[in-house]
Amino acid sequence: MPGKVITITSGKGGVGKTTATANLAAALAATGDRVVCIDADIGLRNLDVVMGLENRIVYDLVDVIEGRCRLRQAMIRDKRMPELFLIPAAQTRDKSAISPSDMVRLADELRPDNDWIFIDSPAGIERGFRNATAPADSIIVITNPEISAVRDADRIIGLIEAEEKGPGRLIINRVKMDMVRREEMLSPDDVIELLAIELLGIIPEDESVILSTNRGMPIALDGNNRAGQAFRNIARRIRGEEVPFMDLEEKGGLFGYLGRLIKPRG
Amino acid sequence: MNDFLSRIFGRERKSAQQAKERLQLVLIHDRTDFNPGKMEQLKDELIETISRYIEIDPASVRIEMTQEGREQRLIADIPLQRTGRRRLS
After folding, report:
1. What is the Cα Rg of chain A in Å?
2. Whether the Cβ atoms of residue A248 and residue A204 lie closer than 8 Å to each other
3. Contacts of residue A158 in chain B, CB cutoff 8 Å?
4. How many other C-beta atoms are found inside a 10 Å radius of the C-beta of residue A121?
5. Which of A3, A131, A172, B42 has the fewest CB atoms within 10 Å distance of its CB?
6. How far is B44 from chain A (nearest CA, A)?
7. Which of A154, A161, A190 sits opposite B20 (nearest CB)?
8. Which residue positions in chain A have pLDDT lower than 70?
9. Between A64 and B31, where is the model more confident?
């Protein structure tokens, strides 16, 4: 079966696209799937450091597109998982160095030999976003429970629908359940109600995510961490498994109302 | 003033609720490129057009955008002018 191209996008910067890309790719590769990540944020390369592969870069995405190297030469193999690869962004060029049709051709070349191709989209709705979404078989929209991030996510969902790539699935990242309980943060069901798309998963806010990024080791590989568990659950849902939503509250309750929201009323 | 009063009586709305309400409004306009100014204009023209056919009560006309999921709907409530029942003979 040819691989699936999944683009991770958000509109707003800093909500966790790159972290999610690295973690979902690692979680899928840990189950034995063959996974390639493409950093489509040309000029602002970051997926390499989050994955801990910054010292191995020789060729990049633009080198592949412009024919300065073969595709295999630009695919950096992960340190821990032999089935996980990164195609890094060019750091010295800008978004105009590649076009949406370049990305479609590249994805077509990657599909036969890989199970999953993740594309980490740049922030914004310009050329870089169109490059990242053009080859997508499905799109994951990631947001935080904050007013500006949700607004931008809504804009992105509208654009995805207009391109007939939609409706996309939603990850809500950095949820602080203690603030939600005090009604000082939009709850996951507020966000789902506002954006009205399918929920793929919720990642609780967790300091360990920063620690693992510091080390260049995805938190999804940490068996005991809740954020890591949330990423692993999302990876399984991407594979088509039915995985119940994690209970993010100490005393239960969240699962029940999320369960209702997944299958919208009426 | 409302905010002030509700603070005095200790019934300030929680910030999450405020965020949700503000987002609901802003998303409606983002999605449709339709702003409150255009809405007023539409309302005026609607009143003008309908009044050519039937007598309505302009002050009670309500137009609002509602949403269900990602579907949006423009709803107009246009009460007719109260008149005594017209006699036929």
Report:
1. 18
2. yes
3. 30-31
4. 29
5. B42
6. 29
7. A190
8. 249-266
9. A64
pTM above 0.90, yes or no: no
Whether residues A180 and B16 touch (CB distance < 8 A) is answered with yes
The domain tally of chain A equals: 1
- Structural domain boundaries enclosing A185: 4-262
Best CA proximity match to A42, nearest among A111, A107, A102, A109 = A102
- Locate the chain A residue with the closest alpha carbon to B72: A196
Cα dihedral B33, B38, B43, B45 sign: negative
Q: How many CB atoms lie within 10 A of CB B78?
A: 17
* Residue B41 distance to chain A (closest CA, Å): 25
* Digit-coded pLDDT (tens) for B37-81: 888 999 999 999 999 999 999 999 999 888 787 888 899 999 998
The confidence score (pLDDT) of residue B5 equals 55
pLDDT at A60: 97
The ipTM (two decimal places) reads: 0.82
Per CB-CB distance under 8 Å, the chain A contacts of B68 are: 266
CA distance B18 to A187: 12
Cis ω before A167 (30° cut-off from 0): yes
We report the CATH number of the domain holding residue A135 as: 3.40.50.300
Tokens 């919208």 belong to which residue?
Answer: A264
Preferred mutation among A157, A176, A184, A191 to probe B, highest tally of B CBs within 10 A = A184
Indicate yes or no: CB of B27 within 8 angstroms of CB of A183.
no
**Predicted pLDDT at B4:** 58
> So what's the pLDDT on residue A252?
41
Q: Which residues of A touch B14 (CB under 8 A)?
A: 182-184
What is the rounded CA–CA span in Å between residue A118 and residue A38? 6
Q: Tell if the CB–CB gap between B16 and A185 is shorter than 8 Å.
A: yes
Give pLDDT, residue A51: 97
